Amino acid sequence: MNKCRGCGASLQWENSQKIGYIPKEKIENGICERCFRIVHYNDLKTISLNNIKNIIDIVNEKGSVAFFLVDLLNIQKDVIKTYHSLKIPTFLIISKCDIIPKFISFSRISTWLKEEYHIQEEVFFLSALRNKNVKIILRILERIGKKEAYILGYTNSGKSTLFNQLLEMSLVTTSIVPNTTVDFIKHIIGDYTLIDTPGFPYQDVLYRSEDISFLKKANTKSYINPITYQLKKGASLILENVIRIENKSEVCNLTFYVSNQLSIKKVYEKNQNLKDKKEYFYTFSRNEDLVIKGVGFITFKTESKVSVFLENEKVLEKRKSFFEG
Ligand SMILES: Nc1nc2c(ncn2[C@@H]2O[C@H](COP(=O)(O)OP(=O)(O)OP(=O)(O)O)[C@@H](O)[C@H]2O)c(=O)[nH]1
Ligand SMILES: [Mg+2]
Description:
The chain is of the alpha+beta class. It has helices at about 35-40, 55-60, 75-85, 105-115, 135-145, 160-165, 210-220; strands at about 65-70, 90-95, 125, 150-155, 185-190, 190-195, 225-230, 235-240, 245, 250-260, 265, 280-285, 290, 295-300, 305-310, 315-320. The protein contains seven helices and 16 strands. The protein is globular and about 65 Å long. Guanosine-5'-triphosphate (GTP) binds next to helix 6.
């Protein structure tokens, strides 16, 4: 059975509701209906995958080298744990480096990854969208004398976009919805064989994966302009109407590192929006982050006590910021 060149699904014409569907007369096109619709009509639908947990096992068993992509906004414990679960030599790549604010040096990020997430190995940076440093993958393979590698990462980390850039054509389907790639796809690039893989699914994120409008806003295509706020006691910030952060200390200075397309509103006590959600108390030292999984993080610039109102606390994680404490 042929595979879809866009997403790797086995092509089939029996069931239009299942992955890999293509009308029988179009089978020669080699691209499934879902990919065709994403590419030509930007028709984005979220699908869920259940074979994902095998990826690590397959790669550990069959692979000799892997590259693991993650962008700055999605660095968090679960992601790094997955990276550490790879038993073959794996290179950590910070993808989408075009979104990193210019004043944050890559070396500062590397040092912080070493201290906060125990990444001992050298870390590499690239932007597939802006075609920056994408050939690093081939240079590393040349340096270590390997010919084949898996490209891994959580969904939306930019794996397939990297393939299109290395292939110098738009062959593979890319999109802002999770699970665009559904199976392994092998590509020959010069002397090397690189394998695109389905992204690992996030367990807990702030958005619902069907919320296309949220995904569009959160997946920024441009550089993040961090926004700093000063909150007096009792004042709150509301992000996209899903999370509210209320200051309980005298004063709180905090900087948002999230896509600038997401809305952040400052409100005061008489606005009760989101106060019906669960309330979680957090205390921050200077230069600690609150990670909001799926969207980015907030750096607290002052010692602060805050209440966070949201649906599910699992989307939150506290850590040391990459600014020196
Ligand atoms: N700003 C920025 N966006 C990027 C970059 N690379 C990819 N993207 C965007 O990120 C989104 C996801 O990209 P994909 O290449 O489909 O990600 P993936 O890792 O293959 O995702 P799955 O197939 O779901 O695992 C798309 O909207 C891309 O345009 C990059 O270097 N910079
Ligand atoms: Mg993909």
